Amino acid sequence: MLTLVWSFLNPVFGYLAQSNLQWLWMVWVMIVFQYITDLFDGAAGRKRRTGLIKWGFYMDHFLDSVCLCSLIFTGYIVSPPGLGAYFILLLFLAGGFMASSFLSVAATNQFQICYFGFGQQRCESFLFLSIL
Questions:
Q1: Rounded distance, CA 31 to CA 21, Å?
Q2: Do β-strands 125-127 and 110-112 pair in parallel, antiparallel, or remain unpaired?
Q3: pLDDT per residue over 14-63, tens digit each?
């Protein structure tokens, strides 16, 4: 749930970066914090065997989406005026790829980490651990 904190702070630092671009370094720090907390919350849940597998799976992906939206909004805040339509397009494209990837995992139990030749070097699909 710490992703909510990092996702809230991203636009705050973006707003501060309007007057001093050095604040954008804090956005990178928030990305690192999000990565670390995202990495360890799944490991902690598996080690504790809390039984909240489906809830954890849902919340992990939902909060990843929240973080993505936060970063796109932060980019919009610091960008020059007149680029709003591009950020809306970016939000739809990135959100679409995330939703497609998560729905694909739920339907096929395979996690694809690349699209259109971008991602893994050879664009292979990996078997995803069943969440059932």
A1: 17
A2: antiparallel
A3: 999 999 999 999 999 999 999 888 888 766 666 776 666 677 777 887 88
- Strand segments, DSSP code E, in 1-132 are 110-112, 125-127
Give me the residues paired with residue 111 across strands.
126
Which residue segment(s) compose the domain that 20 sits in?
2-127
Q: Is residue 112 part of a domain?
A: yes
pTM: 0.72
User: Which residue has tokens 């339907």?
Assistant: 107
Q: What are the tokens at 95?
A: 């959100």
The verdict on residue 26 lying in a domain is yes
Tokens standing for 107?
């339907």
When divided into structural domains, the chain yields a total of 1
The whole-number pLDDT of residue 117 equals 64
3-state SS class at 115:
strand
Q: Please give the full DSSP string across 42-70, using - where no structure is assigned.
A: HHHHHHHT-S-HHHHHHHHHHHHHHHHHH
Tokens 């739920």 — which residue?
106
Nearest to 65 by CA among 39, 36, 89, 34: 34
Q: How many CB atoms sit inside 10 A of residue 93's CB?
A: 11
**Inside any domain, residue 132:** no
